[in-house]
Amino acid sequence: MCGFQQVRDWLQRGKAGLLVEAVDGSAAEQRKLLGGHDVPVVATLTAEELGTVFGRDHVVHVAISPGRIAEMIIQEAGRLAGISVNANGAGS
């Protein structure tokens, strides 16, 4: 599920097991969206990169159902966050 209102509805109904946020999204909007909900959050892709996944120009907020897919995304986001790229494009 993507989009602020749809993700907020999922969070309020307890249907979200993971929140994927665009790394270039607003921190204030993310706090407003979470509103005290205890859901893991990953933010490793830009809004444009997330949008590509959903066939849109950009996506800032994505809710994932609890389960195996959410767990895999958390694991892969951790791996992606662990990769740093220098100005030459080489990993360090």
Account of the protein in words:
The structure is a single chain. The protein has one domain (4-81): Ribosomal protein L30/S12 (60s Ribosomal Protein L30, Chain: A, 2-Layer Sandwich), CATH 3.30.1330.30. The chain is 42% helix and 11% strand. The chain is built from four helices and three strands, in the order αβαβαβα. The longest helix has 14 residues, at 68-81. The protein is globular, with a radius of gyration of 14 Å.
Give the key terms:
single chain; 92 residues; alpha+beta; 60s Ribosomal Protein L30, Chain: A; 3-stranded mixed beta sheet; 4 helices; globular
Average pLDDT works out at 87
Sheet with the most strands, sense and barrel status: 3 strands, mixed
SSE ordering: HEHEHEH
The proportion of residues in beta strands is 5-15%
- The span between the termini is 34 Å
Integer count of domains? 1
Percentage of residues in helical conformation = 40-55%
Shape: globular
Number of helices: 4
The CATH homology group name = Ribosomal protein L30/S12
Rounded to an integer in angstroms, the radius of gyration calculated over CA atoms is: 14 Å
Decide which structural class fits the backbone.
alpha+beta
| Number of beta-strand segments | 3
Brief rundown of the structure:
By secondary structure, this protein is an alpha+beta fold.
Please specify the SSE layout and strand pairing.
Layout: H1 4-12, E1 18-21, H2 27-34, E2 41-42, H3 47-54, E3 61-64, H4 68-81
Parallel strand pairs: 1-2
Antiparallel strand pairs: 1-3
